[in-house]
Fold this sequence. Notes:
- By secondary structure, this protein is α/β, with parallel strands linked by helices.
- It is built from six helices and eleven strands.
Amino acid sequence: MSQSPDYQADTSISNRQALxxxxxxxxxxxxxxxxFVSLLAVGSTFFSxxxxxxxxxxxxxxxxxxxxxQIHRSMTALLDSFEDLGVEIIPRLEIPGQGSLDLFVxxxxxxxxxxxxxxxxxxxxxxxEASEALYIRRQQGGRGLNQWxxxxxxxxxxxxxxxxxxQSDLFGKSSRDKRRPLVKLLVLTGQTRLGKHSEHLYAMIGxxxxxxxxxxxSVYVLMEEQLTDFIKAWLAQQPQ
Length: 240
């Protein structure tokens, strides 16, 4: 299949330029939201700040701003840790029919990472082996486990499949490079925590103990504060 000209990753933008653009968009969305809240407060007694969240445009705006904040935090941490190694980070890589990949990370050593950043508020995430699905336990206002309806494990696999068929140059120029593995990470952010699981579901990468789920493809599940240490451990044990 030929590459789609409508969905080519822009690799001409530097890491810091991309980070700056995300930061500026964050500030703009925050200004729009708080400006709207202020107008309602002045012009009407029928809306409260909490009521504003019930308005679809405001809810979508806050959701987008939350995603930008996730990407900004993780991209900053990665650059602070690996910029001297020549890391290249492509944020918000659009994939037709499969949403957006939050971060595509590649090193001059040709090690590649696909990172999905996800949050479910103040909750704990568990993996059920029988159903091969992730479940959510809310810490406030909820009882028991509820299935995480969207299959983020499958999405990472599908995103990799599309990228290899349509943007194979992201993996490298040579035929050997194009076959290099893509390490897929589902990273839980903010107050979303990862619960305890059976020992056989974990993998040790250096000194990092992380959940490894094998479905259609292998995906590591870890928490935000583990991200840079995991990648350091991964790089340390790989041939250069």
